[in-house]
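User: My collaborator and I are trying to settle a disagreement about how two of our proteins should look. Neither of us wants to argue from intuition anymore, so we agreed to look at predicted structures for both before our next call. Could you fold the first one, then the second, and keep them clearly separated?

Assistant: That sounds like a sensible way to settle it. I'll keep them separate. The first protein:
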Amino acid sequence: MDYHFFKESPFKTLISFHKLIETLEGIAATNVDYRSNYAKALLKEIEPFPQFRTGIEDFNLIHNNETLIKYLLADLFPTALTNNEIKAVTIPFQNFTFNYSERFKKILHNAGATFDMAIRDFDGNQFYILNCILILNTFYNQHFDFNKPLFYDIPDANGIMKHYRILYNADFMEIIPTDKAITLTPEDIDLLMDNYDNIDLWKEKFPNESWILKGFGIVSLFDASIESAISNLKSNLLKSENERADSNQNFETIFRSIFKISDLKIGLIIYNEEDEKFVKPPYDDKKIGSFILNDLPEADCKNALFGCSLENILEQNKPFVISNVKKFATTPGNEKLGEHFLKLNIQSCILAPVIKNDKLLGIIELVSAKPRELNSINANNLDLILPYLVDTLERYKNDMQHQIEAIIQREYTTIHPSIYWKFRREAQKYFQTNNPNKDYIFKEIAFKEVYPLYGQIDIKGSSEHRNETVKEDLRKQLKTLLEIFESLKSNTNLVLLEQRKFELQSFFTELNSPLKADTEQQIQRYIETEIHPILNNSKMDNECQVLVENYFKKLDEKTGMFYHSRKKFDNAMSIINKKLASILDKKQVEAQNIYPHYYERFKTDGVEHNLYIGASIAPTKVFDSMYLHNLRLWQLQTLCEMELEHHLLKSSLPYELDVTSLILVFSSPITIRFRMDEKRFDVDGTYNARYEVVKKRIDKANIKGTKERITQKEKITIVYSHNQEETEYLNYIKFLQFKKILEPTIEQFEVEELQGVSGLRAIRVKVINYNKEQITEKYSYQDLLDELN
């Protein structure tokens, strides 16, 4: 016989029937003959087993005398109730039982020989502490209330998990201290009262086997499957998405317990009122899906597949029950839905609307592979479940709306984390007004006395490259069309063909000149309206037909034009921008550790960034100019890293592009203000606007007195105004030269005057590049395309 005891206990347990024997001795001494004779006979039967009174330590004695023990306990286990009561002898809280009622025996038999009966969610620490509480209440006359319900989860013959509430009767037990028992003071009891989870404290005050538990208990179970299943359902629905990892399996187990159907499966579809569509919940394959939609991500409410069935649910707001799908499918109008379910081996089902305030939130799907298992009678069990599903689906819809709004804010109106606190403070003031619906004037968000840092890596000659690739594609397309027209032999008017050939040739010649703003659009419109109709409607021989088919295959689906060279250029631009932006974003996270500062980054024909640092952005931290200098050095190092990254990319790009790098130094603090109308930050004030003017024009400026641009490929240009800025950056450059990041040669020059701005100077220095072997090993073009997509 296999007994499952917890290893540690404050009790040394002695199974004893001494209280029952004493009761029998009292009955034997009475004058009621039949009772007295019965008691005397039973006492004589147990006389050879003194352990029944003194205490049984060898539990094989119980196993070997099951019949005698059954007679001894007959008054407590009446035969007339044995098929009704779920009852056995036990030691409280231990997984040890014997002398089962017939109903209890049948339940365990149906569970299977391998079933191990254990109390749900009950571990050794809980067992130890509950026994200590039993001592406190019994021996020390305390009144500690521990009403947490205990359950056995036992499967039935069909594999449906049943839940049984456990009740204990301890009338036939007594608790006796040993010489190892510690006498508790009121202070000890108060300490235990405040430290339920401190198992070491409980073991200190109640050492292992320091008390004797003598006697036996009686455990009675009652079937609380529905109540327990609903409680579990509520617990599951209240869990977060991260905690609800196996929700589908848990829900199915819960629903099977309620409906008593072993193969019951559940699904769910959400009703999107705005689009009048049913959609799947946004869970992965391991979680809840939908039997109605199956492989479809969504479906219109009046989808022809479902006929009138879903329309009835929408109109009547009542469960739609199909107890026999085969029979249902034979009724005119139900064929498509019936066949749809039969393909999924669904023989009976309930489709129940989940409704809140007369609005449909979704449909819960209950299905079975057996006909008539689900029907209009057990559909009433949904009344127990739907209230909790209503709250859950409503919460899900609200959460989804909040997440959508968060995505919109993050992707379209970003507020950087470093300044989020100020927006949140203003929003909280609005929220806490007595009447948040009244006209509320939002305070402008501004940060004063902040130091700006601007930097960019720009694609060198991007406009010229773009124009050249456009011209190249147009030339190829026009040349291909001219070849087709040369070989076109049909009944088409020859004069018209010659006219079109002349016009195509004119466009081809025009492309030898600089590209005008509307040239591409003119050629595209001409080809679509004048040339393509001829190619589509003309009769032609096989050879010409092949040329035309190959031509149309080369057209881009979106533009209807050749998009070969331009695609290589666009891909190269995207790869460069994505790679450099990812470096900047990653390094920026580290830079926030220097001092919290505002950061924004833009992808144009390259990557630009603005940084603003100052005490007003992080008012809880002390600001010092040291943080500004640290951030400037970080910016210079980061641009060096981005330059090196581009150099490693260049030979693997589909279209070779060079980049130029620039830093603008501005040592005077400025004010930035959030523009409510544009939902972005901008500099504030006339003087501060000078900084913006320089930012927009500086990268196109020349060295004073020359036609040479201040920016050059593979070099970083640092533009500044004051001598102290020059000294500061020359020190940074010297440090990076020592680190073998920058080359020894330093160029210094004046910058030509810009409109309204003069006196700018610049430092230019080249970044040390890796050798060719290292470059070609680092990237492949396919890797870049995969990353881009």
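The second protein, kept apart from the first:
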Amino acid sequence: MNLRRRTTALLSVAGLTSSLLLTAPQSASAANLIENPGFETAGTGDMPYCWEKSGWGDNDFSFTTTADAHTGSKAMKVELTRRVEGDRKALITESADCAPVVTPGKQYDLGLWYKTTTPDAAITLFRHDPTAGWQYWTDLKTLDLAGDWTEATVRTPEVPAGTDRISWGVSVYGTGSATTDDYTMDQVPDPVLPPECTGTAEQCANGKWDVLPTRNPVRSMHSVVLHNGKVLLIAGSGNDESMFEAGTFTSAVYDPANGSYKVIPTPKDMFCAGHVQLQDGRVLVMSGNKGYPTADGRVGYQGYKDSYVFDPETETYSKTNDMNDGHWYPSATILGNGDVISFGGLREDSTGSVTAELFSEAEQQWQPLWKVNQTWSYWGLYPSMILMQDGRLFYSGSHVFGNNIPGTGSAIYDYGANTTTQVPGLRNKDERDQSASVLLPPAQDQKVLTLGGGNIDSNPEANRLTDIIDLKQPNPSYVAGPPIPQGTVDLGNGPVPQTGNQGKMYVSAVLLPDGKVLETGGALHNRANPVYETSIFDPASETFDPVAVDPEARGYHSSAFLLPDGRVMTTGDNPGNGTWNHDVSVYSPPYLFKGPRPQITSVIDTEWNYGDTQRITVDRPVAKAQLIRPAAVTHSSDPNQRFVDLPLSVEGDNVDLNVTSNPNLAPPGWYMLFAVDANGVPSVAKWVHLQGPQALKATDASAHVHDFADAPKGKAEGPGKQRVSQKVGPTVSGCDRHYGSINVCVPTDFPSEVKKTAAARCEWLKENDYGRLKVNGKDDPLGLDRDRDGIACGKGDVKRG
């Protein structure tokens, strides 16, 4: 943590705490909440009453009370004449006498008049927590250059829980000056009208699921929401060896506007590839399936080096250059400069890839090995690598298949320094296989939720665990969150209530435009025993609210994702018996039954730059707005999913939105823009394209990133010894290939309640609709062919026990 900032904060907290013992905070009033808003009252030192100096870093600066005022006789000028790093800011004094009292859940309109000679000035907020003290909250608005007095107004997000006061002012983080005067702060009035329920009482409380009349024509396990509102559904061979042998690889484009599907020619088996939207909205698809395991299980899945780009305009694939290595089940994370970084997966020889790959946005190709920093670490399959606000990557611990990485199971990777630091606190780290991780709303809060999971290898009952980490803390660590609510589970004879600690793996987590998270789908065991449970997680209260349940099983190879109209679509389910669920479900959350939706009637400009103020018009009052990055999801994993708050200023039907200046918070690309009213009802999304101005390409975009995760206690480890690959067993997918066809998954380890006898195992297989299974080769490791007739679980096998 920045020591200068920490010292200031600790002194202020000490003063504030002693004052609070004498004076309880009073409710905010409708009047201006700023003490000495025009700097007219002198203080005891060289700063006006209720104002203090703050800032950090290597820079030369001055604070001047100047006579060049907007009104009255005084204004405040903050100037940087030399800057290497850091900023300087004049803030409201962090004390009980000066810092305005605020109410959690409320919003406040802030205003000031200013002149600037630098584009690097912003309105910055800090919040006080009675337990944790003063801490950075958010940057609300970048100030445009202004030679004459100019008014700036902005509305805060909802005040977080546990906040009793805030301090704010203008920070200068580039050479030049900002002169400010006449500060205002008013609480936003509560909405007058409560929401009107437009559905049944059940729908208004819990939402509604619909199973669509038209089925998905392909066995899609990859879902990408395109910037034209359509959905790319990628199947490849669809985990069907006969399709692979025939060279029949499929994708489809679904159009929510009319419910139609268009099957797309697909050049390669993109079954279990990686994918991410590029800055221009095209979809980068990396690797996929070069070969299925051999029938005797001696050789596992193989990943090819090929890579393709899907163009939403032409709805066609085109080939890029090859990756350096094969990557079946790779990660894919877009960075703040538009590059894509990828880790993990299986190579062409079925071993684990230890090669990091980098796709250059500028060159539109994968970089040669010598240009990419390497740790030679094996991150596993589909490791969830989430971009942090300073450009580092947070490996959340969510992954696919078997055990987690060695150590704590969670880490921060710094690509520039090429170091990895373990992060503590993730519970049951080797049972987070097929868990879900999501950067909670808003992205500015830098909190990650990880939920559920199991273990394909040992096949225990999936868990209910959730863990939350605050990456703004100097030494971040996961802490326990609330357990996932329980629903029903089908153990082979119809759904029954879950008991004990039964949870689910194959979890889907979807960011909603009201700032909450929908979690849905899952199963209790490896490709078996679907769990029917759906709930909504509220990041503000850290609680789950059980809602209506998807009537379809959604286990392995299922996806859930947000549509631009605010609904959530779910697809797929691929049990171990090799079948596929082609039914598609759509969930309408409760907010769609709370009366008329606000409408964004115009977007003045759909091309946005970082630090912009962008204007939209709406048909009625809205309380907040945000950007949500469209989904690119598979196997419970979408590390690029994020919800970016847009602080707003309101003048009639005109709403000015303040875009973050940090590309690491909102990597370049297309976003869904939602406006939300005070009752949490969202508009239908408008599409906007966010990319960086030239200034951010030439300078470090993280220069204005505040303290967080900068002092983890774990040891930062550099690259290991260069090596070719990581040895990975051919049963990595948890399937014993000695039985049945290649797309049938007989578990290598049956659930613990199944006795280790042929009769018990065959009964379990029968209950899960496996049917008769051919024995591949002469080996029978599970003892299912006791009469040695080449058919597992025949009559003679069951009789023998």
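Some points you might bring to the call about the second protein. The chain has four domains: 51-188, 201-592, 600-695, 731-800. The radius of gyration is 28 Å.
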